[in-house]
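Onboarding guide, step 5: your first structure request.
Type a short instruction followed by the sequence, for example:

Predict the 3D structure of this protein.
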Amino acid sequence: MPSRPRLLRAGDLVRFDGRLHTVAALEGTAVRLVDEAQSASVVMLAHLLSSESFEVVTPASVRTVVPAAGVLEGLPTKAVERAEWWQRHLVEMLTGRPLDDPQGPVRAEYDPAVRSLRQRELAKAAELAASGHTTSLALIQRMRCRFEDEGVFGLVDPRLRAVSDGTGRADQRVVEALRKVVDEQMNRSTVSAQVLRRRMERLLEAEHGPGVVPLPSRTAFYRLLKAVGSGRHTLGSARTRRSLAKQPDGMFGRLTAARPGEVMEIDSTPLDVLVVHQDGTVDTVELTAIVDIATRTLAAAVLRPSTKAVDAALLLARAMTPEPMRPGWADALRMSRSVLPHASLMALDERLAQAAAVPVITPETIVCDRGKAYISDTFRSACQSLGISFQPAHPDTPTDKPHIETTLGSVATMFVQHLPGYKGRSTEHRGTDPASEALWTIHRLQELLQEWIVHWQNRPHDGLRDPLMPGKALSPNEKYAALVAAAGHVPVALSPDEYIELRPRCRRRINAYGIRLGHRTYGSAELNPFRRQPSGAGPDGRSWQVHYDPYDISRIWVRNHREGGWITAIWRHLRTAPTPMGELAWDHARRILAQRGTDPATEDEIAEAAVALLSHLIRAAAISAILDGTERITRTTFKNIRIDHSSEFSARGGTASLPRTG
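The system replies with structure tokens like these:
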């Protein structure tokens, strides 16, 4: 083990100014000395060491460094034995004592107190020569220097210590050419190894000329390609290869958020499940969600056929609004039954009285990609009006928002795979006919997703661990309860105008009968002065800006371009045709009439069909309750109701069929 310089310690016997002294204490740069007459003195350390009369009389005990553990693992046995042989002799030469007996007697020929380093090196060379190991003095000196610099690992043959990159002794020109071919393959379609070999050969001929660089054999090329393309999926999935190429060159950083809402991420992804859309078509759906980094809370999530800027803005409003308990949800999902500090939060925000166990989080910073829905003026304006810092990610860099990427993947594996109509993530994983299964409507799926999010909030998350208790994974609600106790909670209640501003919008004309939106007519006494009047705003100057709620078709809001503010217009069939399920009942009734050949159907016909549909459902639920012996009418939903031409009701994908009601 390599020696260190001689150290001056308390208790050492030194000679200074012709007298013997004992080092009593060391205090910074001062040394306290006590001579034989017990006379004490204090001397500066620099003056003491530079004095010609200074000498350490105490025998030197060479301190050694702690050897590196495991440095010889994986090396050939003979190389390890040779390094340990040199170590034993060098330690004995430097300290005078054997390696296996550091407290034993000092050999006279290797005593550092009376022998110089050169004398000890000459003695060791003579000893090795006498034992049959002819070794030069220069070799001993080189091995000693390497031992003092690197420890026992420095005694290993340098050729064995070199870390190989897997290319071995291959020509570096071949290696560089193959690396260029592999780099160019990143965004190209996957090809065979023989194609890559031919590209490498053409590149070598173009750079060095034909036949100048010797080409490796087929076996050597495969071995070289495996080393150069390690971890890059050169011969594998092109999608995985492009995904790996987007990773940064350095180590992943980690953004730490100290309070809920400090940094939130938003993104969209298509779900691999078939659903029934509002127009009756069967297709996939897109999920847009926002997640809080500090607590991993899914603050809001909406399902739409395709994400638009208004949907992203709507997500902000949903994140800042308590999630209400819905009919049919278990009481265990209430916030008052969860680990969230419901009592203390209730004193600040009365809206949490009937809320589900999902925290209300006000975003401070939003991180998003550069999709059209997020970099649009609509979403930027929504962030600006709510005081949210807008932070777009770098182009084509999903690692700038890894939390939402992982969360959306969790939704796909933990929620979507359990749904009927799941079609797999690719054609390779797709069934024969997923569309033939009992499909859910987009509205019913949205309701199921909201209920699933409440369960997600109580599930332990591996990324939520307390530094003082790393063995326990916290749930998002537990993490929120811990952070809100330290950071506090400030309720931000959106005003009615702000809530309307975040609704989806379109442009419609105000006709004599009112406003037509989604085959429905809306009217209001406040609209009378503006019937058949141009708005004076917008692209054509005639249409009026209309905001609507896709989950509540009872009313719309018309922007008053003349006087400012909003005008609420009520659906004219609201009293005669109540639709508690929003657009779902209306669109389902319209599809029934279309199947019977009554298309295009009038608004009155659709309203009557919706009323009849709801009446049948209520009676069917009542009969089912009676037959089951229950005393209450169970809630019946539209999740998968289909009406045949014979007016028979049946449940697709439900747990039981509804009985005929005539």
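Each response can be followed by summary notes, for example: Residues 1-5, 61-65, 577-582, 621-662 have pLDDT under 50 and may be disordered.
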